[in-house]
């Protein structure tokens, strides 16, 4: 123990994705001595880990980036309307290089424990490398989708082929000409099934809840279009930060049922043609996720498209959801078409669940053995609070974060902090807003930096430089998060948004569905009111 190296810094940033990199930049600008760690071997966060074939963002390239580097907005290449994983990785590397962020980042170093020392007013952070970082401020940008959820299936260890989770893909994995099983039909599963179906010998998609997949309409961006966006960037970001979803498109105030059936159908058709799941859900009508009648109209339209596209009625049935269209919307250009290939199958896990794996493949309850060479678990993540509760994080009086959130689910004040854990900041923590991730991460990083800056000010006035939100503030925010969620169909549709994908988690909204504009207004109000939800010691 005595030989454990212990180093002191003002702040430690954990994670180097969108939230972490910007946090490093902001804290350096405050003049703090900053250190950062990441368990990966390079920057990128989600986009470091998720490298499966076809991994691509489904948010328009021009708003899937930082808004704060004006020069990069004009000059960074993004030749298509969406960015593939390698392009995103190189974007992150470019940002880190340009702003001198690499200097303070230590890679291949995972946070293992963090213990608050009340007397010293510091966090002691233990890492996988055996080091201890002693810091006043601990800024965690751990990623909302990091900790893999892999189902426990009997016989998993007997399977002779290859098994991989979507976020652990390695380039050497052989799939072309192989028999592939993809389990899970969220954003990852749909992208993976669609891409691998192109060259797999045989592909079976194992589906428990089918979803609604809107075409993405991936395409090149012309120089004229790019020029126009460059010229309008100020306005684009202004609108993004005032909108609900921050995706860079107009969110009309028009209710679905205000149009005649023919006009409504035309709007859906136009949305389908222009592509993008988020645009379909939020860019045509105001009420698809809040009004059951409106949602049913969208469902009817998509069901018709599936029936029209998928020629085999049995496959079409498996691909047809009976849930609300109120999960994270999905996007892919060829997903439904792939099932017209003779070698691509859809297996309904509700009708016949997986019983076990054998050495040759997957045995389902209908008695069938699906012989495969590769199984891809696209089974999602222990999302949001799962990124935190797996670590040994201890606040005041030794309370463990996992226990702190055990009874009522995760609580935070404005997604940024939680009571009893002074000077611990979340970037995109539980209770942060559901919207396009880069602007949300920017907002979170800015708020954490503001709180730290205020705490530093109190230090100059003889204070300890310790900030902690009140129990009342986090309870109030939790109530708001719950109330807004209750008004949406998201709350009636099980998903990771509510922790329902991992057994044992408290079912409660993990995201604020009130929109980024209102979320930012709540933060602005907190600041303008002199940070009443926080105590600065
Ligand atoms: P998601 O969206 O959580 O999807 C996970 C999928 O895996 C979903 O279809 C689940 O079915 C399925 N799943 C999970 N466990 C099982 C078991 N035990 N058996 C069968 N199927 C299972 O994760 P993704 O990685 O696709 O996407 C996460 C986010 O990344 C996404 O929202 C984007 O923002 C990017 P279920 O629906 O629960 O029946």
UniProtKB/TrEMBL annotation:
GO molecular function: flavin adenine dinucleotide binding; N,N-dimethylaniline monooxygenase activity; NADP binding
Listed transmembrane segments: none
Alphabetically ordered keywords of this record: FAD, Flavoprotein, Monooxygenase, NADP, Oxidoreductase
Coiled coil spans: none
Keyword S-adenosyl-L-methionine: no
Domain of life (superkingdom): Eukaryota
PANTHER family the UniProt entry points to: DUAL-FUNCTIONAL MONOOXYGENASE_METHYLTRANSFERASE PSOF, L-ORNITHINE N(5)-MONOOXYGENASE-RELATED
Name of this protein: Putative cyclohexanone monooxygenase
Organism per entry: Lophiotrema nucula
